[in-house]
Amino acid sequence: MSAIIENLREAINGESNAKRKYEIYAERAREENLPEIAHLFKAISTAEAIHIKNHIRALEVITNSKVNVEDFVEINEVVLENNSKDTKLNLIDAINGETYETKHMYKNFIKSSKKEGNEVAELSFSLARKAEKVHAKIFSDYLKKLEKHEIIDTQKIFVCQICGNVEFGIPPSVCPICDHTEKFFKEI
Ligand SMILES: [Fe+2]
Ligand SMILES: [Fe+2]
What we know:
The chain is mostly helical. It has helices at residues 3-31, 35-63, 77-83, 87-115, 119-147, and strands spanning 157-160, 166-168, 185-187.
């Protein structure tokens, strides 16, 4: 199997686990009466779903065949449930995950897609990497507020349906990551 295919599969697996994890973390935040953080985890879980969709499409284009995620995606439910101890730890875990994806996983995957001249995979990895950077920053901001016992305002959260970028309040006229217009933002 070429490195690109292996990398796309690894990314789909990683994103699927992140998506599931954030859904569990959203439930936990709700139980802890932290509805704004629950809302954020829910919104970012939908952003990871966009990355999964993009990577699947890239894999289908590259292999010219239908992709069956059940063949290789393994959701580690037991580990996820055990890890979701409290929202502060969950935010730290989310920041670590997003940072790993940005600084290591996607960085390396982009490098190898460039080396192989595979623009389809490169685009999917680059969009995801830029969005993960935004996710890490937002999770860090929320963690700081939680640690300082600051009130987190209730805000509208919008997710770009093309790249998984996350914006608050009102969607930008053009997505700073993928250049698509505001109509591609969905309120979560
Ligand atoms: Fe993310
Ligand atoms: Fe976007």
